[in-house]
Amino acid sequence: MKKAIIRYEKVLYKEGKGIKILGWENIEKFFNLPTEYTNEPPAFYEMDDTSNTIKIIRETPKWGFTQEILIHKGQIIDAEEFQVLVSVVRQASRRLHNILQKNQWQGKGEIEI
To answer: What are the b/e assignments for 1-30, b being 16+ CB within 10 Å?
Structure first.
């Protein structure tokens, strides 16, 4: 799998610093991922084929419940919250890597008929 890339721009936002999401690449779609990954936090994935929304699932540190965050192209996020989300995405990437290695589920195949 290629590494996911999120493109952004630094902007002023609500009297502070913000991050405007410009787009992303190499983020797997929900239906291409193992349910072991998508059913528990942390996880992130593209919602569907429109490529307009990614979902980040995390466990909130303060309360311990699962939170789902939708990110859209063009959305502006508080810079501090963006850093937290980047941390969650990194954790989710490591988790997915471990799941794929454990299940030996990786790459594409081809069948000749």
So the answer is: eeebebebeeeeeeeeebbbbeebeebbee
Distance (Å, whole) CA 16 – CA 36: 38
Written as one string, the DSSP assignment of 38-73 is HTSSSEEEE-STT--EEEEEEE-TTT--EEEEEEET
Q: How far is it, in rounded angstroms, from Cα 6 to Cα 25? A: 7
pTM of the model: 0.82
Q: Position 37: which residue type?
A: Y
Across the chain, mean pLDDT equals: 89
Cis peptide before 42 (omega within 30 of 0): yes
Asked if 53 and 46 touch (Cβ cutoff 8 Å), the reply is yes
- Whole-angstrom distance, CA of residue 88 vs CA of residue 84: 6
Nearby residues of 65 by Cβ (< 8 Å), 6 or more positions away: 59
Structure tokens at 10: 């630094």
User: How would residue 56 be classed by pLDDT, with cut points 50, 70 and 90?
Assistant: very high
